[in-house]
From TrEMBL:
<dbReference type="InterPro" id="IPR050214">
    <property type="entry name" value="Cys_Synth/Cystath_Beta-Synth"/>
</dbReference>
<comment type="function">
    <text>Catalyzes the synthesis of N-((2S)-2-amino-2-carboxyethyl)-L-glutamate (ACEGA) from O-phospho-L-serine and L-glutamate.</text>
</comment>
<dbReference type="InterPro" id="IPR023927">
    <property type="entry name" value="SbnA"/>
</dbReference>
<comment type="subunit">
    <text>Homodimer.</text>
</comment>
<dbReference type="Pfam" id="PF00291">
    <property type="entry name" value="PALP"/>
</dbReference>
<dbReference type="GO" id="GO:0016765">
    <property type="term" value="F:transferase activity, transferring alkyl or aryl (other than methyl) groups"/>
</dbReference>
<dbReference type="InterPro" id="IPR001216">
    <property type="entry name" value="P-phosphate_BS"/>
</dbReference>
<dbReference type="GO" id="GO:0006535">
    <property type="term" value="P:cysteine biosynthetic process from serine"/>
</dbReference>
<dbReference type="InterPro" id="IPR036052">
    <property type="entry name" value="TrpB-like_PALP_sf"/>
</dbReference>
<comment type="similarity">
    <text>Belongs to the cysteine synthase/cystathionine beta-synthase family. SbnA subfamily.</text>
</comment>
<protein>
    <recommendedName>
        <fullName>N-(2-amino-2-carboxyethyl)-L-glutamate synthase</fullName>
        <ecNumber>2.5.1.140</ecNumber>
    </recommendedName>
</protein>
<dbReference type="InterPro" id="IPR001926">
    <property type="entry name" value="TrpB-like_PALP"/>
</dbReference>
<comment type="pathway">
    <text>Siderophore biosynthesis.</text>
</comment>
<feature type="domain" description="Tryptophan synthase beta chain-like PALP">
    <location>
        <begin position="7"/>
        <end position="297"/>
    </location>
</feature>
<keyword id="KW-0663">Pyridoxal phosphate</keyword>
<keyword id="KW-0808">Transferase</keyword>
């Protein structure tokens, strides 16, 4: 296929069979490898969905519009790429926890990055402070458009196609779908497709321990960005999920390393979380089931955290020795087995 420009390569990501991860499980496990999108994540789909209609209708145009969004990660990168493609200015409001790498990518696409330096007085969280700043900018800047991923139905709409791709690849037999959640766009879009097409898929929402999305205990801090949220998103319909699994930071990190050792997949944190959730439910999965984990992004955005020995040591102490066994070159090359 010859793509008509880079944005034409969003979607149609591979569905990859994971044959080694759960040898004891009499079921097929697949990963929907969303880092194959050109901006590196599942959020390219949402970004395109929220912008394209307005671009095509002429409502957004380079000479009179500015896109403004609060996102510190994948959505921001997706929007930055689309805005560059269509020559739209983009103001991205981030906070000091945004990784240097993400800020560098945003600046490489010539997004204007504005860093909110103080958290919200009342909650101590950065998100409300970022949203306040977005509203200020939008209020003062003629032609400003705020996609607002947390409440925009077009975010969820994008993922009806994600589920269509999964269902088509498996001839409609998707028994379990494990979906990490933040804005809940992926979850809601996939569920909408499942319902509209009468699929008998059990939908498992995967949330971070410490997140406020599904009645979790939101008092503890979370280390892994991408999934989980400090407020419940407007897109969430509580009946969307047949089950919810809350995954701890350590479980998530261990699962990412298992994916790397066993499948040679360098996955992002929330991908590992879906694997940890599947593991937790494995004794309930019937023989022959098709289980799909949506893998939202790749591990290259987590080299300083999940895949860094010093970060693992700082946050999880002894787990470092299990996840980073001694160098295989010490004493000659040995056959490595996964932790
Ligand atoms: C890495 C990662 N995982 C999971 C999600 C959750 O996706 P959604 O916002 O559709 O719930 C996101 C969203 O930004 C993400 O970046």
């Amino acid at each position: 296929m010859i793509a008509r420009g880079i944005l034409d390569t969003i979607g149609d990501t591979p569905l990859v069979r994971l044959e080694r991860l759960f040898p004891e499980l009499d079921a097929q496990v697949f990963a929907k490898a969303e880092w194959f999108n050109p901006g590196g994540s599942v959020k390219d789909r949402a970004a395109l969905s929220m912008l394209l209609g307005k671009i095509e209708s002429g409502e957004l145009a380079p000479d009179r519009s500015v896109v403004v969004e609060s996102s510190s990660g994948n959505l921001a990168i997706g929007i930055a790429q689309i805005c560059r493609y269509y020559r739209l200015p983009f103001v991205c409001v981030v906070d000091p926890r945004t990784t240097e790498q993400n800020v560098a990518i945003l600046r490489a696409f010539r997004a204007h990055v504005e860093i909110v330096t103080e958290p919200d007085d009342r909650t101590g969280e950065y998100l409300p402070a970022r949203i306040r700043r977005v509203k200020e900018i939008v209020g003062n800047l003629p032609g400003a458009y705020w996609p607002n991923q947390y409440a925009n139905p077009l975010n969820a709409k994008a993922h009806e196609r994600t589920m269509h791709e999964i269902a088509t690849a498996l001839d409609g037999r998707v028994d379990y779908l494990f979906c990490a959640t933040s804005s809940c766009g992926t979850l809601h879009g996939c569920v909408t497709y499942v319902r509209e097409h009468g699929l008998s898929t059990t939908i498992v929402a995967v949330d971070a321990m410490g997140s406020a999305i599904f009645d979790g205990d939101s008092s503890s801090s979370r280390l892994i960005p991408g999934y989980g949220a400090s407020v419940r998103p407007a897109l969430l319909e509580p009946e969307d999920a047949d089950g919810v699994v809350h995954v701890s930071d350590l479980e998530c990190v261990v699962a990412c390393h298992r994916l790397m050792w066993q499948e040679a997949i360098l996955a992002g944190g929330s991908s590992g979380a879906t694997v940890a959730a599947l593991q937790r439910m494995s004794d309930r999965i019937p023989a022959g089931a098709n289980c799909v984990c949506v893998f939202p992004d790749g591990g290259d955005r987590y080299l300083d955290t999940i895949y860094s020995a010093s970060w693992v040591r700082r946050n999880f102490g002894d787990a470092e020795h299990e996840l980073f066994p001694p160098d295989e070159l010490e004493g000659g090359v040995r056959d490595h087995h996964s932790p």
